[in-house]
Specification:
With 247 residues, this protein is of the alpha/beta class. The chain has a single domain, classed as Alpha-Beta Barrel (TIM Barrel), CATH 3.20.20.140. The chain has an eight-stranded parallel β-sheet with strand order 1-2-3-4-5-6-7-8. Strand 3, helix 4 and strand 4 form a beta-alpha-beta unit. Helix 7 packs parallel to helix 8. The longest helix has 15 residues. It is globular, with a radius of gyration of 16 Å. The chain starts with a strand and ends with a helix.
Length: 247
């Protein structure tokens, strides 16, 4: 089972996207051999969490055996964020994405963010935090060390750092060494022997296959794991075993 932990759905505000419907996404997945993909609507970071969550639910419903929904929430929405999250949980979503650089808040000790994390922790949801949405230097990003501070305060939450490239890799590895509840996904990693380096330094059990599809073409994301010089047990864990376990 190959599971893409980091995919999107919906329109992209910067340029046209060919694959936007549930059928389009599955067609793209089939092209490169991805069995299931975790999706979140791009409306979440750019329009609003309720709008994005509604679109995610709608698109997952079009391919429920292939697509898995992650909700979006922002502490700037105050109490409405928790109400919407409950609806997302009841609809069958399986995790949460946070977009602090787009929703304009920090991962410091925000009381509403604390309520959000305590709630999703009680459901066993993983929390994926993209430091950038895709590998484009023009998009907003933030300091990965904030995730480390958050993970230390919420040790029962499984955090996944998303969007890491070579500039953030050293800090990301430091965060993972300090906090056993932090993993990393591969969609933006552009480092020679990058996947092998992750496995050598932190093991394979917290490394997740991600592509950023359809915003990034998924074949490149697949190739960097398929051709990494790692053992087959590690490869299978990264490509899907770790995601299935945390989901």
């Amino acid at each position: 089972m190959i599971v893409d932990i980091n995919a999107y759905c919906g329109n992209w505000p910067y340029w046209p996207i060919k694959h936007s419907s549930a059928t389009d996404l599955v067609t793209l997945m089939d092209r490169v051999g991805i069995d299931r993909a975790v999706i979140t609507s791009t409306q979440g970071p750019f329009v609003g969490s309720p709008e994005g969550n509604a679109e995610t639910v709608r698109i997952v419903a079009g391919q429920p055996d292939r697509l898995i929904g992650f909700a979006t929430a922002s502490p700037t929405d105050e109490a409405a964020a928790l109400t919407d999250l409950v609806r997302c949980h009841e609809s069958g979503m399986r995790g949460l994405r946070l977009f602090p650089q787009h929703h304009q808040y920090r991962l410091d000790d925000d009381p509403i963010l604390g309520d959000i994390l305590n709630t999703v922790s009680s459901w066993g949801w993983p929390v994926l935090i993209p430091i950038r949405l895709i590998m484009n230097w023009g998009l907003p990003s933030f300091d990965v060390r904030e995730i480390g501070n958050l993970a230390a305060r919420y040790p029962s939450v499984n955090f996944i750092i998303s969007g890491v490239n070579y500039g953030e890799l050293r800090d990301s590895l430091a965060v993972m060494r300090r906090s056993a509840n932090v993993g990393i996904e591969t969609s933006c990693l552009q480092v020679h022997e990058g996947v092998k380096g992750l496995v050598d330094r932190v093991g394979s059990s917290r490394v997740y296959f991600g592509t950023g599809l359809p915003l990034q073409y998924p074949a490149a994301g697949m190739a960097k794991v398929q051709h990494a010089e790692i053992d087959q047990v590690s490869r299978e864990a990264i490509l899907g075993g770790n995601a299935m376990r945390c989901l």
